[in-house]
Amino acid sequence: MNSTEREKISNTMRELSAAMDRIKGERELINEALTDLSASTGQPKPRLRRLAKHYHAMDFANESAEFEELETLFNEVTGQ
Description:
Blueprint: H1 3-41, H2 45-57, H3 60-78
């Protein structure tokens, strides 16, 4: 490995490490916000996390449609 490659790898590793630190910080912020919201509203934290994911993706209608399809298939398979 020449010095240019070594420097490029080293610089990229520093960038990736900094990005990983930012991700860790954001995850901690999300967890704290969900914990506080759960405590103040009485809503279960997993439900709030799922709501946040759908809110972020704005795909609740798509998720609902997929669940309806799964429910129909489940009912057909189980005879319910």
